[in-house]
Every structure is written in structure tokens, then in C-alpha cells.
């Protein structure tokens, strides 16, 4: 009975440790920084200010019936193109630290800022 309890405790500790290692990792196996997400809902980018590492992959999920995008104000930096309802697209954050304003190409009043850190 004691061996069973010890075995369960050991498995619980190992499982929890593995979980925290996975959650706290800052890089994926291909060398890019961990994933970040922007969700589009109620004609808003959420979050509308996202801080991320340079070169990180950002996934954008559209939860609206209407198509939306995440398009950099500075032409050519990043652009998901229009994303249809319940679809996702991804882009790579700029490699240089700074603040990058973005908007929805179909609804220019929908804006946000991508804060890129080294």
C-alpha cells in the first residue's frame, strides 16, 4: 500500500513538473519564441496591445461572422489577409524591437499595437 501511495505521489510530482516546464518554455523546437494569440471578437482585437519577443509567431483567431485582419500600419511588415469566421491565420512578429501599430484592413477603426521586445 505504501509503495502505491509513493508511486502516485512521484507521478503527480513528475507530471506537474513537466507541465510547468512546458508552460514556461520560451522557445519552440524550431527556435522561434513561444506562440501568442490575438482573438477578434465584437469588432475588437483582444488584446489590442500585445507584447511579444522579436520573431515570435502570432496566431490570429476570428470569432466574428465578418472577415477581419491584422495588418501592420507600416506597409509590408505583417498582414494576415482577411480571416473568415472561426478561422485562424498566423504571422511572424518583426525581428526588430519596437512598437508596431496595426489595424483591420476591412475596418480601419479596429486598431492595436504589437510591442516587440528583444
From TrEMBL:
It holds the Pfam family Cupredoxin_1. Residues 20-116 form the EfeO-type cupredoxin-like domain. It comes from the Bacteria. PANTHER family: BLL1555 PROTEIN. This is Secreted metal-binding protein. It comes from Candidatus Woesebacteria bacterium GW2011_GWB1_43_14. The lineage of its organism: Bacteria, Candidatus Woeseibacteriota.
